Amino acid sequence: MNSILTSIPYENDRPPSRASLTIVNASPTVIVDHATGNIVDAAALQAIRSIRAHQHSLYERSKRAFDITFALLLLIVLSPVWLTAALLVRLTSEGNILYCQLRTGKDGRAFLCLKFQTMVPNAHALKMELVAFNEASGPVFKLRRDPRVTSAGRWLRKLSIDEVPQLINVIRGDMSIVGPRPPLPDEVAHYTPHQLGRLAVKPGMTGLWQVSGRSNIGFDEWVELDLEYIRRRSFWYDLWLIALTIPAVITTRGAY
After folding, report:
1. Which helix (H) or strand (E) holds 205?
2. What are phi and psi of 235, to 5 degrees?
3. Distance (Å, rounded) from C-alpha 132 to C-alpha 135?
4. DSSP conformation class of 55
5. Alpha-carbon dihedral of residues 197, 203, 209, 215, nearest 10 degrees?
6. Local structure of 74: helix, strand or coil
7. CA distance 138 to 93
8. Bridge partners of residue 39, in order along the sequence
9. Radius of gyration of the chain from Cα atoms?
10. Contacts of 217 (CB under 8 A, 6+ apart)
11. 56-93 b/e with 16+ CB inside 10 Å = b?
12. Angle, to 10 degrees, between the axis of helix 151-158 and the axis of helix 79-92?
């Protein structure tokens, strides 16, 4: 059977339901639960655990403490930014201010990832019409001039302000400040065992991929950057990547 049930992004932070499922006709390499978005493939989970075996508990505990402290600090410092962004979304877009989307996190467990709403309400339906124009490699879908993005949303994405709500995901423990970006479940369904290694750690708001060019980088190189981060990660390496994030955001290289 060359099809798999996968969750699709949903608008306006409505909870996922069986009505928000679609059959993707392809040859999936990873089995993803159609109701939760979690990986339920034993071989895939073993591939992830083989990477995770090299992690250190002391670093994990200190990283979690840093994540909570830094995320709370950023929420306070950036309050004028996210309040302005929320107002801008409300004035220029239909629907809710926040966009809630199912993403795959550490060990293949799905979670609800938060962003500011930057697309039109029927964005997913329009995506089906734009697949042929995909500019990204691998299982990822990206368009430099995506017609689904609102005028205000284009600037929010360009400056990465749309991702500020993910600080809440960090505080909740779904994400980390530094780590690989969280993929969609239907993307993960087509990962190779090698690519699954990027799910061995918590996804992050920034990381080696983000400071190396973001969407200007092909998917295979993206995966290698994530795996390099996982191999090298340490408290000081995380701080270095956070510092590099500032010029990366200011220059907007690869952001769209």
Report:
1. strand 204-206
2. -60, -45
3. 9
4. -
5. 110
6. helix
7. 31
8. 32
9. 18
10. 209, 225, 254
11. eeeeeeebeebbeebbeebbeeeeeebeebbebbeeeb
12. 160
Residue matched to tokens 């990822």: 140
Rounded to 5°, the CA angle 19-22-26 comes to 165
Strand 98-104 to 110-116 pairing: antiparallel
pTM of the shown model: 0.84
Burial grade of 255 (CB within 10 A; 0-12, 13-18, 19 or more) = middle
Block residue for tokens 């992690």: 55
- 3-class SS at 130? helix
**Angle at CA of residue 211, ends 61 and 203, nearest 5°:** 40
Task: Report the C-alpha gap between 200 and 184 in whole angstroms.
Answer: 15
Q: Which residues have a Cβ under 8 Å from the Cβ of 238 and sit 6 or more positions away?
A: 63, 66, 177, 178
With a CB cutoff of 8 Å and minimum separation 6, the contacts of 159 are 249, 252, 255
From first to last of its 256 residues, the chain has per-residue pLDDT tens of: 333 333 333 334 343 333 333 323 346 778 788 778 888 777 887 878 777 656 677 888 899 999 999 999 999 999 999 999 999 999 988 888 999 999 999 999 999 999 999 998 888 888 888 888 888 888 888 888 899 999 899 999 999 999 999 999 999 999 999 999 999 998 999 999 899 999 999 999 999 999 998 888 999 999 999 999 999 999 999 999 999 999 999 988 766 6
Rounded Cα distance between 195 and 92, Å, is: 38
Q: Are 149 and 118 contacting, i.e. CB atoms less than 8 angstroms apart?
A: yes
